[in-house]
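User: Predict the structure for this protein chain, please.
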Amino acid sequence: MTQCKFISEIGDEPCEENALSDSPKGLCIFHELLENKDINKCMKGFYEKISSGETNFEGYILKDVDFSQAGITQMGDEESEQLWFTNVQFHGGFSASGMKWKSPVSFQGASFHGDADFKDAIFANEVSFNSVTFFGKTLFSFACFSQDARFSKTIFCKPSEFAHVSFRGPVFFDGAMFKRIANFTGALFEKGGSFSHVKIDHGIFENTDLKDVTFDDVQIANCKWYGAKLYDVNLSWVNWRTSWKSPWRKYILREDAEASKADTICQECASLVVLNKARQCDTCGKLFVERNNDFNCPKCKTMNTASSKKCINTNCDAEFSTKVNNNKYPDNSYRATLFRKAEDVYRTMKLTLMVRGDYRTAGDVYFNEMIMRRKKNYYERNLGEWLISHVYSKLCGYGERAGRVIVASSVVVFFLAFLYFFNQALVKLAMPSHSVDFFESLYFSFATFTIAGTKDYTINQTFQLVTTVETILGGFMIAMFVLVFGRKMLR
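Assistant: Here is the predicted structure, written as structure tokens:
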């Protein structure tokens, strides 16, 4: 029998197993491709190796791994060597639910081609999922990572669940990519972590403790932050990827408050469809199709029947859903609740940034906090507060936009100048018979607005009250500009 030709990257040691007699590349039953070996025999041998204390499974090609079904509830101990699952290909499902991983373990470079279940798992030592690709759904809910956890450059192709996970050591998601929903609801980051250079298309951080977590050069879209603890969080260079003018509006924005305006929901998961032209559900990832008649798969163009939930083409992984009418929220109370949550999120972010000394960004966040409050008042029918807030926004941007004061003042000055000019309200004292032109009216309006006044002109009795109001308004606007500009300069 010849020895397996697989060469390990760990110490450059060859595999000690015997090669299969019919292996094209001279590989053993564990490293040979699935189609060239007996799967049942391979999996039986794999479980036996685990039970015997084997630690190196590098490069194995396995299918339908289920530790609980094999009676395995624990791997390694405090004194055993590190477990190596580097570059392993896990085809089919992978279930390690409730497993206790007592030794350090590395899945670096591995690929999970089906759903991966690590729910309730306990990692007592360091664990690495660096450069791993999860092609199916990933489930880490209620898992516990006692020491360092690394997910750098990991790709999550389908929804990933980290709800209520305890990261008791530092956690690193640097360079990771979440192509579908990433749910961190209620997760605990006890010793901080890093999300540098991460792309998150749909994230949930509700009620998550994110103390000392760094979001550096991150692309975040459609994220929910309500109830998140953001103390000492570094939000530097975050790209919130939104079509709205302000880069800080993304929280509500397409995922929450805007979603409540949608008139359709996903039939499969009952999630609100944010855009009427959406081609797939942001939550479950299923493609939207019309099921009245047979239809072509949007992905591979294969004809499917109206009742199909998955594409009949075995080489296509498309799953289907339908948009149905949304009768879940018939009134405005839900929208008001969403805007109230958004207001709370912006307030938390503002306080976090102020503690860090980033007052400029904190001012931008405060601006959006006030917008959320205004929209909340509208849907709660507090129209008096809504109107006052709207005027305050237009005049000075809630104290954060000094340029708006200048624009508003210019509008008042020019409007009243036109009013004086078209009504011939001004008389030049030096030349009573002279017809006052527009530029002279503009000069008079500006002088009146700035409280400087002018003795060169007199005004008809009809417009004396107008000039009085303009003087009062001008003093108010000048004082507002000084306060807003001074506030910005002090920062």
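The two ends are 77 Å apart (CA to CA).
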